[in-house]
Amino acid sequence: MSNKDSNNRESEKPIKKRPRIFLSAPHMSGREQELVNEAFASNYIAPVGPMLSRFESELANIIGFSNVAALASGTAAIHLALRLAYVQAGDRVWSSTLTFIGGVSPIIYQSATPVFFDVDPFSLIDLDLVEQELERANANNTLPKALILTDLYGHPCDVTRARKICERFDVTLICDSAESLGSSIAGQPAGAGADFATYSFNGNKIITTSGGGALASNNGQAIQNAVKLATQAKEPALHYEHEMIGYNYRLSNICAAIGVGQLEVLEKRVARKREIFNTYRSALKDLPGISFLEEPPGTKSNRWLSVIFLDPDKHENGPSRTIAALEAQNIEARPIWKPMHLQPVFKGAQYFGGERANTMFETGVCLPSGTAMTKENINSVIAVIQDALT
Ligand SMILES: *Cc1c(COP(=O)(O)O)cnc(C)c1O
Fold it and tell me: What's the DSSP call for residue 330?
C-alpha cells in the first residue's frame, strides 16, 4: 500500500457534484430497449428490416410527406438531396448563413459553390432578399440549382412562400428541418411542401436514434433513388453491377428501433421544450437588456433550444460571461451558431445581407433545454443567469 493510499483522505473527498446539465441530452421514453430487443429477436441486425420500415412510415405520417428514407445522419440526408437535385461541380447552392455545418458541407462534397444569405428577425433565411437576388441571378444567368432553408432552433421556415419563389426560377427547394421535428407552420408540419426535407436524429436533437437522419419527399421515385444511392447504388444484378457511385448511408434496423420508441413521445417532448422556454422567459424577462428568440408569426416552434439575447450596451461581454458563469456550475451553454460566411472554411464565399446573423451570433446564448431536466435543474440555470447579469 502506498503512502498516499494509507493517508486518511476523508477531508479531501470532493463534495458530491451535481451531474452536468447538458444543452440537450438524449431522453429515452423507456420503450426503446423493448423495441431494440424486438429487433434483436428478429435478427435483423442490419441496415434493413421491419423496424426501419416501421420508423419510416411512422415518421412520414408525422412530417406530412408520402415518402421517407431513413439514413445514417442529417448530413447524409442533405448530401442525397443535393445529388437528387443534380447539383454538380461548379453549380451554385444558396443557403442561410445561420445554420449548422452539416447542413452545408455537402455542397462542398459535390464540389459546388455555396452562397450564403442573411436571416430575418426570427433567425430564418431572409426570403425578400433571396427573391430579389434570384431575379438578379436570373438576369445574369447565375441561378442556383438549389436553395437550402434552415429551421433554426426549431423555428419553421415559410416553405409555402419559398416554394412559390423557387418554382418561378426552377430552383430545387430543400428544407433542413434537422432542428424542427414536431414544429408547425399554418398547421402544417415544418418542412412539408419542400421538394426535399431533411431531419437529424443525432444525440442532441429533440428525438434521437443515437445517430441518424432522414430524407423526405412527395416524389416517390426520388426517394427510391435516394435509397439506392444510400446502399452503394447497386443495379439489379446478382454480381453487383454499378452504373454510378453511391454511399453507405442507410440507418441500421437497430437504431430505427430506438427511433420508433422516440416517435411515440415526440409530442410530449415538444410540449416540455416549450414549457422550459416559457419558464426561462417568465423568470428572466424583467432583467435589463435581455430578450428572447421570438416565434415567427403563425408558427409553433418545438423550441429545440431556448435562446436569449443580451444587449451589449447593458451587458459587456454578456454572452461569454453568462456561458462562463454557467460552466463554473457544470452547466453547458453555447453561443448562437457562428454564421457560415464568417467561418474560415468558407472564406471568400459570396454573401448577401447585412449584420443581422452576426449580431445574433454576438449577442445570443443557447440555454440548456433538455427535456429530462428537473425543475431544480432549470432553477439552477435561472439563478446563475440572474446572478451573472445583475
Ligand atoms: C444537426 C444538424 C445537421 C446535421 O445532422 P447530423 O445528423 O448531425 O449529421 C444539419 N443541419 C442542422 C441545422 C442541424 O442542426
Answer: T
